[in-house]
Design goal:
Number of strands of chain A: 10
Helix content of chain A: 40-55%
Number of domains of chain A: 3
CATH class of the largest domain in chain A: Alpha Beta
Oligomer: homodimer
Radius of gyration of chain A: 26 Å
GO molecular function (chains A, B): DNA binding; DNA-binding transcription factor activity
Family (chains A, B): Belongs to the HrcA family.
Organism (chains A, B): Sphaerisporangium melleum
CATH architecture of the largest domain in chain A: 2-Layer Sandwich
Largest interface: A-B, 30 and 30 residues
CATH topology of the largest domain in chain A: Beta-Lactamase
GO biological process, one term (chains A, B): negative regulation of DNA-templated transcription
Distance between the termini of chain A: 52 Å
InterPro entries (chains A, B): DeoR_HTH (IPR001034), GAF-like_dom_sf (IPR029016), HrcA (IPR002571), HrcA_C (IPR021153), WH-like_DNA-bd_sf (IPR036388), WH_DNA-bd_sf (IPR036390), WHTH_transcript_rep_HrcA_IDD (IPR023120)
Structural class of chain A: alpha+beta
Chain lengths: ~325, ~325
DNA sequence: GTCTGGCACTCAGTGTTCCCGAGTGCCAAG
DNA sequence: CTTGGCACTCGGGAACACTGAGTGCCAGAC
């Protein structure tokens, strides 16, 4: 259907449009990319590409602009991910290595990605489900109140205040702490529930109400946070680009749920997901594309991160940046 | 200088301009606000007000628009803070009461404020300096690695990994933990440094290297976080308002340091701070005003929160909302 | 059969002109 | 001091023509 040259023309159209942000005409195209044919020939090819839905004209007598379908073909078959330069990679590495805790890693990552791509970066906090319990701490606050702190192997800390039905003394708390740690240390969060199911029954009678209260809060913590936390940065990069509905995009960015779905789930964790314009699950994001990747330590994916920008973005470069950052974040998290 | 009626005219100009977003002329003004005088008289007054710099015309033969100086006078002398309705207050209360931890309180607050005012809300995390240590926890991670967790009375949790010079056993860690808690429990963060200064010397010789390492990380935590964390929400409310330089405002919002200075420090904690247009410390925010207030439990101010919007905002309503939210957040934090 | 140069056509964007009306400043009378 | 009257200003919209980039199509060349 589309011979080699037509594909070359499509590629040229995408590249030119991305860099100039103006509809590209046959003449300019034939000149800049030495295709070895005349503008007239290019025109014929463009007519075919338009008929097939890969490009379109904003109005008669204007140049052509790629459609979502055109970008899709470009991403899938006509482009190669562009790796970052050695200097950039080194910069990323040192910048991320300076992080002091999980919060800091995430904050740095999202800023880095925004700056690197000059677009809006989105990062999801590492999932709890796949991580494991490193330590559970109980801190008596008052006679009938203790604070529950749970630390995971990804450095995440969850804390909750627990109100107790009865007065307890420090000895009881210490005992419960010991028991909890003994049975949960190293346990995957997803399996905490079954692990502690009959724990109260193994305790002396007087400790059971306390244990039940603590456990119910503990389990609550786990399900609560299944709605993950997501942060973004670089919104300023959107401003000044009139091709996207700024208001709608900002609204979408502030909706955790929408963001969640944008990042999507990977079928293959190591692969990049690219969603172009209308492929998005949210109508306010018609003019934008999302490039996302999973990240994690080792081979289990912890969460996802990505970049959001106008459909007219430089896909090879963006994809390179996202991939690189995802890798480095994974390394950092694994190492800490 | 300005008699009663001129002030009334100024007030009317501000109110009309705020609600219509169009320069207001003498005729419409004389009609809508029954001033009891003719348009011609109003014109004379306006001429005086303009001469004094309170209002200005965008171009000859257009109505008048308040200047920053005009808004300032309006806020200081011509308006009263408008309290929220009972229903709104109840809504705030229940929404904030549902928060599970400090993070949640802050997130909810910022969203609430953004929605309430239909502008950009900014909230600073409660300051560490004035809060006190509730508990310090040491969790052995490996032979030469422990995690330090500090919990404050405001519910904030700080955590760091500490690399130790020597191998230590659990007993040593437990001992240090006990000593730390004994000397720091209830201690103001600002005074932690002096409190632990000669602590290593009071320990048995073999424990000292470990103690020094832990303490250095602990102190680092305190100074590190002195640069507070700030979050914002409601950026979407800015879009569509062409009177502000969207890009510049978004950039400012993503700069922690700038935000910090925007919220400013209160001379009187309970008072509202209003910064109008050019009064701002940052040039990119010429077209915007900030309404901020301190919040805290009891009488010590923990941090600040506020709202950022176009200079042409409804000050009485905005100020009412900021004040109310600040109060409720203070209550919530005090109660948890 | 494919490519190419030529040619007529289309139409967004720009600049020009013109006009309208809201709003002003000033003045003389109440 | 206030008011009605009046001439003046000027931004913004409508009508119009012009320009030029870009197109589609066709007939001839390779």
């Amino acid at each position: 259907m589309l011979d080699e040259r037509k594909l070359a023309v499509l590629r040229a159209v995408v590249e030119d449009y991305v860099s100039t942000n103006e509809p590209v005409g046959s003449k300019a195209l034939a000149e800049r990319h030495n295709l070895g044919v005349s503008p007239a020939t290019v025109r014929n090819d463009m007519a075919v590409l338009e008929e097939q839905g890969y490009i379109t004209q904003p109005h008669t007598s204007a140049g052509r602009v790629p459609t979502d379908k055109g970008y899709r073909l470009f991403v899938d078959r006509l482009s190669q991910i562009k790796p970052l330069s050695a200097a950039e990679r080194r910069a990323i590495e040192t910048f991320l290595a300076g992080a002091v805790d999980l919060d800091d890693v995430v904050t740095r990552t999202v800023r880095l990605l925004a700056q690197l791509t000059r677009q809006v970066a989105v990062v999801q906090y590492p999932s709890l489900v796949r991580s494991t319990v490193r330590h559970v701490e109980l801190v008596p606050l008052a006679e009938r109140r203790i604070m529950l702190v749970m630390i995971t192997n990804t450095g995440r800390v969850e804390q909750r205040v627990v109100d107790l039905p009865d007065v307890v003394d420090d000895g009881q708390v210490a005992h419960l702490r010991a028991v909890l740690n003994a049975s949960l240390d190293g346990c995957r969060l997803g399996r905490v529930a079954e692990q502690v199911a009959e724990l109260p029954e193994r305790l002396p009678e007087p400790d059971r109400p306390m244990a039940t209260a603590v456990l119910s809060v503990l389990l609550e913590t786990l399900v609560d946070r299944h709605e993950e936390k997501i942060v973004f940065a670089g919104a300023a990069n959107l401003a000044g680009d009139f091709s996207v509905g700024l208001r709608e995009v900002l609204e979408a960015l502030e909706e955790q749920v929408v963001l969640m779905r944008l990042l999507g789930e990977a079928n293959d964790p190591s692969a990049l997901t690219v969603r172009i314009g209308s492929e998005n699950p949210y109508s306010g994001l018609r003019g934008t594309s999302i490039v996302a990747a999973g990240y994690g330590s080792g081979d289990n994916e912890l969460a996802r991160l990505g970049v959001l920008g106008p459909t007219r973005m430089d896909y090879p470069v963006t994809m390179g940046a996202v991939r690189a950052v995802a890798r480095y974040v994974g390394q950092i998290l694994a190492g800490s």
